[in-house]
Amino acid sequence: MRTQYHENLQELAELLHAMCLRDRDVVAAATDALLSADLLESEAAIDLGREVEIMHQEAEREAVRLLALQAPVAGELRQVVTAIQLTGNLKRMAALATHIAAAARRRHPEFVVPEPARPVIAALGAAAVGIAGSAAAALASGDPEIAASLDQQDDTVDRLHERLLATVLDPDWSYGITTAVDITLLGRYYERFADNAVDVGRRTIFLATGETADRWIPTDRTGR
Prior knowledge:
Strand content: under 5%
CATH architecture: Up-down Bundle
Number of domains: 1
CATH class: Mainly Alpha
CATH topology: Methane Monooxygenase Hydroxylase, Chain G, domain 1
Helix content: over 70%
Number of strands: 0
Structural class: mainly alpha
Largest sheet: none
Radius of gyration: 19 Å
Number of helices: 8
C-alpha cells in the first residue's frame, strides 16, 4: 500500500513538472504574439493557459486525495502540502502569461508594443522562458542548487522591468497614455511571472531539504 502511495506522489510531482513546462510554453507564445501582432498565436497562448487551469484542478484534487488516503508521515506530508502550494504558483504563472496574450489579442491588428520598447519586451520574454525552464528543471531534479539559481534570473527580470519603465517615462515618449499603460501592465505581468517562478524554486528547496530558502546554506558555502 505504501509503495502505491509513493507512486502516486511521484505522479503528482510529474504533473507539477508538466504544468511548469506548459507555463514556459504559454509565456513564449504570448511574447511571440505581442511582438508579431499575431492573433492566432495569442489565441494559442490563451488555450495553453486554459490547459494549465485544467492541470491545476487535477493536481489539487490528487493532492487532497493523497492527504485523505492515508496518514502521511513527515516527509510525505511535506511533499503533499508543498504540492498544493506549488499548484497555486504554477496556476498564477499561466494566468499572468495569458494576460500578456490577451493584450496582443485586444489590440489586434495593431501592435501593442511600440518600437522603443520592443527590445526590452523581447528580452523580458526570453528571461521569462528561461526562468520557467529553470523552475521546471528544479522540480524535475529536486536539486536545491538549481532552485536557488532562480533568484539570480529574477534579478535579470527586475532589471529589464526597470528599463521598460524608464522607456515609458522617457520625456521623448510619444506613444500616448494608453500605450504607456499597456506597456506598464505588461512589465508587471512579466515581473510577477518571474516572482512566482522564484517561489517554485523556494518551495523546491524546502521540499528537498526541509529548510526554508532563507535558512538553507548552499553546498559551496559549507565546504562540503
